[in-house]
Specification:
Strand content: 15-25%
CATH architecture of the largest domain: Orthogonal Bundle
Number of domains: 2
Strand order of the largest sheet: 5-4-8-7-6
CATH superfamily of the largest domain: Winged helix-like DNA-binding domain superfamily/Winged helix DNA-binding domain
Number of strands: 8
CATH topology of the largest domain: Arc Repressor Mutant, subunit A
Structural class: alpha+beta
Distance between the termini: 77 Å
CATH class of the largest domain: Mainly Alpha
Helix content: 25-40%
Radius of gyration: 22 Å
Oligomer: single chain
Shape: elongated
Largest sheet: 5 strands, antiparallel
Length: 182
Amino acid sequence: MEEQVNQDLVITRGGLYAPLPIPAYKLLIAAGEHVAKDVLVCLISHMGKGNRKVYPSVKLIMREAGRGKTAVISAIRTLEEFGFIKKFQFWEPGNRRRSIYYLQEACWNNDRMNREAIAFAPVIGRCKCGSAVRLGEIGVGMLSYHHYGCGDVVELLSTRSKSSVAKEKGTIIKISGTNDRD
């Protein structure tokens, strides 16, 4: 059976493509869910071309993530709560329970994340209604960004550091030390 090598890659609007789901990865780190991050990386490593369905056993996840059974099961629940995976369990002949994990679009696209996940997203702007706006809570309009909550205009916060602003203005900042000679 020969696989097609030149498959077209389809990236949905607002989505980032990488085999590693960067938005989910960054969000799990911000939430302090490092075991869930490791489990997600393990699940992604089992993903095939064009297929988001994976079915590694808990023992295999434990071995590849380097975590214990309780931690892995808890991390899988966390990934389900954040909407990054959906788990389906069934019984195989011989009384063996199997799990299939479906990786969701929310792993790669901030706009698809649920409220539990968005709560850990960084604040990127302020809405005219006064609320802080997080990544995944805004939409792109003709002239500006709009808040999904109220529909008002969002003013994005600056992501530049003060040193880069000083460089743009041509300001030279000298830091004097003990090794300066007159």
